[in-house]
Amino acid sequence: HHRRTLTLEQRAARCPNPAGRRLLEIISRKRTNLCISLDMTDSAEILSTARLVAPYVCLFKTHVDIVADFSQDFVAELTAIAEEHDVLIFEDRKFADIGNTARLQYEAGMYRIAEWSHFTNAHVVSGPGVVDGLRGAAERLGRGLLLLAEMSSAGSLVTGPVTELAVELAAREPALITGLIAGGALLPDTADVITMSPGVSLAGEDSPTARPAAGDSFGQQYVTPRRAIMDRGTDVVIVGRAIIGAADPVAAAKLHQTAAWQAYEQSVAH
Ligand code: BMP
Questions:
Q1: What sign has the CA pseudo-torsion 255, 94, 116, 180?
Q2: Which end of the chain is more exposed for a tag (fewer CB within 10 A), N or C?
């Protein structure tokens, strides 16, 4: 099992990034390290699901470029739900261009992601300049950047030197790069870097009870919250279809919250 030396509450107190600190405080207060991936194309559907699952999650993850009827009113409503329920927002934009283009994509266009999203993420395949492109708005607005250090999909090339660069940049500057997207912790918890893992479902490939739904037909691969948190040391699990595609999303959210929080508490105790 992965060993934690600090609780998430202790890490909140020392977190050098304002968005990261708020997230760790929310996690500790609400006792949930579950992020919901709201991968739906209709804004009303996203908002109603967000309202239903908000009590059980710390973070709403969005892909705004799949929303057919996107508007700034949608953003305002999602923000209101998030504020009411003590939830933060993470636009999963995966910036991957040169720094200057990433800067424009983050701040401008019809989405204006920097204005409303507490966290966003970037690939480092184009080199460290992408971080400098995002830096200005992120520092001005107190946002957190997450770098993709590993991906959950089969055959991913986010490995080797790409992983190493992401880890190195986060370790060097946790005040800006508050986290990594990865299958598990790649730095000790004293590095002040939050790890978030997608590809998580109670029906993951290591599930002892559920009939394993190990993936989808597009290469996604799932592990259980227990494996991601206890065995691999991640902090936050990102769950989409196992909740939003369930017959009862609220029940599924509660089950994933409980499993993820128990796995975290056990990894602190051991
Ligand atoms: P689901 O739980 O329905 O498979 O959704 C996973 C979510 O996490 C998707 O929004 C996807 O874009 C994202 N994601 C992922 O699945 N694997 C990664 O390595 C990185 C991601 O951002």
A1: positive
A2: C
**CA–CA separation, 236 and 244 (whole Å):** 18
Query: For residues 173 and 210, what is the distance between their CA atoms, to the nearest angstrom?
Result: 40
* Cα of 175 from ligand 1 centre, angstroms: 25
Ligand 1 atom at minimum distance from 156 CA: 19
ipTM of predicted assembly, 2 dp: 1.00
61 annotated among ligand-binding-site residues = yes
Q: How many helices (H) and strands (E) does the chain have?
A: 11, 8
| Annotated binding-site residue? 241 | yes
Q: Which pLDDT tens digits describe the chain residue by residue (270 residues)?
A: 888 999 999 999 999 999 999 999 999 999 999 999 999 999 999 999 999 999 999 999 999 999 999 999 999 999 999 999 999 999 999 999 999 999 999 999 999 999 999 999 999 999 999 999 999 999 999 999 999 999 999 999 999 999 999 999 999 999 999 999 999 999 999 999 999 999 999 999 999 876 656 689 999 999 999 999 999 999 999 999 999 999 999 999 999 999 999 999 999 986
Calpha distance 140→253 (Å, rounded): 34
Which of 86, 94, 132, 254 is labelled catalytic?
A: 94
Question: In the numeric block, which tokens belong to residue 234?
Answer: 């991640």
- Is 127 annotated to bind ligand? no
Nearest-CA residue for atom 8 of ligand 1: 198
The residue to mutate among 220, 234, 244, 256, having the most atoms of ligand 1 within 8 angstroms of its beta carbon, is 220
Query: Could you tell me which residues come within 8 angstroms of residue 185 by beta carbon, excluding any fewer than 6 positions away?
Result: 2, 195, 232, 233, 234, 235
254 included as an active-site residue: no
